[in-house]
Each structure stands twice: as C-alpha cells, then as structure tokens.
Amino acid sequence: xxxxxxxxxxxxxxxxxxxxxxxxxxxxxxxxxxxxxxxxxxxxxxxxxxxxxxxxxxxxxxxxxxxxxxxxxxxxxxxxxxxxxxxxxxxxxxxxxxxxxxxxxxxxxxxxxxxxxxxxxxxxxxxxxxxxxxxxxxxxxxxxxxxxxxxxxxxxxxxxxxxxxxxxxxxxxxxxxxxxxxxxxxxxxxxxxxxxxxxxxxxxxxxxxxxxxxxxxxxx
Length: 220
Description:
It is a single chain. The protein is an alpha+beta fold. It folds into two domains: 2-65; 73-215, no CATH class. Helix content is 29%, strand content 35%. Strands 1, 2, 3, 4, 5, 6, 7 and 8 form an eight-stranded antiparallel beta sheet that branches. The termini are far apart.
C-alpha cells in the first residue's frame, strides 16, 4: 500500500514537472514570436519616440522655414519679412518686409568664406559678413541688386549687425558659367543677430533663412 502511494506521489510529481516545462517552453516560443513583432509596451514606447523625433524634426523645419524677425523696442511692427529671398553678386542676399518699405540685407564673399555644399557656421562681423536693415520712405522693390538708382526710395534709417551667427552653404554650383560670372544657389540662415542704429535702438533677429537663392550674377 505504501508502495502504491509512493508510486502515485512520484507520478504526480513527474506530471507537475512536465507541465511546468511545457509552460516554460510555451512562454519562450511566444517570446521568439513576439521578437518579430512589437509587444504592446514596445509599441507604445516606439510611438512615443517617433512622436518625439517627429516633433523635433518639425521644430527644426519650422525654424528653417521661419521668415519673421524677432524685434525689440518700437521697431517690432515694422519688420516682418517676406519668405521670398533674392540675391546677386558673390554674394548679396536680401528680402523685403511685407509692405516693401524695409529690407534685410546680407553680404559676404563666398570664396573668402570657403563656402561648400556642407553647412559652415560664421560669426558676423568677424568674417567680412555684414547684415543690415534699411527702412525706406517708400517701396524698395528695386533698391537691391539693381544698377538703376533713379527710382530708389530714400533711406530713413539703417541698423547694422554688431554680433550674431549664421550658417551658410552652396546648394547648387556652376549653374551658368560665363566669361564674367558664374551663377550658383546658396542657402543662408541667420541663427541670431543683434543690430543697432545710430541712436542705439536694437533689433534682434532670430532664425531668418534665405533659401536656394540664385547668386553670382552681376546686375546690369
């Protein structure tokens, strides 16, 4: 009788161990299957990471596409610049305010700066880079990159950059090579800049971009 009870006990133990092993094996198999998919926790984390990544990308995109200036003092309402940028020479870049009565102007030398197809950063005023804002008494549609001065409006005030940082690169080189000029496209972003006029009125610029501007050609 004791022998039968012992045998029954041993059989019961063996059945329990077999059941445990089956369960463990089943869990491992499920884990391998889940490795080729995404568990609910992993999926949630992935979505969260993607949202964060996309938010960062959107934030960068917004900054690169921003065309409005952050200004201080009383000048803030006067300088909301168009997203259209134009240029000439090697290089002069400009964009007009929405009412065309103010202009943001950037000039530099692409060869001296060593511009290439990779972004390079430069400190304003330390690299023969100059940024200015002109305020006119009328519309300045032909003030920049135009050799006809008859219809130019009068400059009422001018602010010059005293500090700041820009990023610039050539996006398309040697578009039209002629004997006296070689046109190309460039993108320049003003990360930040502080400008002052003769009365020390300050204008702060931030995240202004001149994108894919055709330069290298000579007005005339």
